[in-house]
Amino acid sequence: MRVVRVSPFTGEENTMEIDTTQEAIDFYESGGGLIQQIFPHLSADEREFIKTGITAEQWDRLPDPQ
Question: Strand 13-17 vs strand 2-6: parallel, antiparallel, or unpaired?
Fold first, then answer.
């Protein structure tokens, strides 16, 4: 399904095709359990996107904290 989130880094609306259902996302968002348990078949990047709206590319563009 197409998941749409707003990145807190950029304020941009991002979309990602993710192998899940609206019911699973609703269950997660209602506090139904840990994201790793609800979506074990998804990659860490896909779970991060569901949770925060931040894409892997945005994480990669962050400056090195050193």
Answer: antiparallel
Q: Is residue 17 part of a domain?
A: no
What pTM was computed for the model? 0.90
Whether the CB-CB separation of 6 and 53 falls below 8 Å is answered with yes
Q: Is 33 exposed, middle or buried (0-12, 13-18, 19+ CB in 10 A)?
A: exposed
Interval 22-56: pLDDT, tens: 999 999 999 999 999 999 999 999 999 999 999 99
SS3 label, residue 28: helix
Whether residue 34 lies inside any domain: the answer is: yes
